[in-house]
Please model this.
Amino acid sequence: MKTIKNIDTVVAKVLEIFCISCVIALFVIMIAKVFFRLVPVLSLIPTFSTGWFDEIIEWLFAWLIMTCSTLLCRNNEHFRVDLISTRLKNQNMASLLDTLCYTVALIFYVLLFHYSLLLCHSAVQTTPILGWPKSWFYMCVPVNSALMCIYTVARITIYSKGILAKKQTI
Model:
């Protein structure tokens, strides 16, 4: 169990560093794009184009959003309406409701993983300027949805153990 927690800690730290790196890169690239648009220094170079900025920004945004979603899933910080579960007096019923909600989320993540893999497999286009495969842009969805599946299964296991432990003591 300690090994799993260590792996989880390392994965979470890597995801956090990746998100911070994406934000920093987005900031630098967007500042540079605005600078080069306002100060046409590079217009003196006839072969220079800032179009590649847009492609990298698109890639970074996609990966940032999906990776941050994975971190939110890991930390159980996704938006949720817990009005019913907080008002339930019976803790077993609240845990059962949470388990049901996470099961629905797991089904969504599994479907997202499946269909995003199909999308990545069928993507044959490349970006116009850099020539990167569009599947690199789309790959953020199956990678992160697989991680969200793992974290959701762990959350379901935690709630299920809580239900079972309470039933055994009664």
Notes: The mean pLDDT is 86.
